[in-house]
Amino acid sequence: MTTISLRIPKNYHQRLDEVSSKQGISINQLITNAIGEKLSALDTEDYIQMRANRASRHDFDEVMSKVKSVNPDKRDTLS
């Protein structure tokens, strides 16, 4: 575990105190969770971009050509 010194606006600290108290966790745990969530979101964005870069319109069209052409169930249509 690493310790860092962090300067944040007073209103952020007040809000962190309110939210962490409401959640029943420490400010440290709240910030650690928030960092984890942000890193996960960024990793997911990178992963999706990597997969998109590998995509092929030809392969997509080939797969979609195998889908039967049928009318949607009436519950799946807009009024």
Portion in strands: under 5%
| Total strands | 0
| Major sheet size, sense and barrel closure | none
Identify the quaternary structure here: single chain
- Low-pLDDT regions: none
Give the helices and strands as they follow along the chain.
HHH
Rg over C-alpha atoms, rounded to the nearest angstrom: 23 Å
Q: Distance N terminus to C terminus?
A: 56 Å
Q: Keywords for this structure?
A:
about 80 residues, mainly alpha, about 0% strand, elongated
Give an overview in words:
The chain has 79 residues and is mainly α. It has a domain of 30 residues. The chain is built from three helices and no strands. Helix 1 packs across helix 2. The longest helix is centred in the middle third of the chain and has 28 residues. The chain starts with 9 loop residues before the first helix and ends in a 15-residue tail after the last helix. The model has no long low-confidence stretch (mean pLDDT 94).
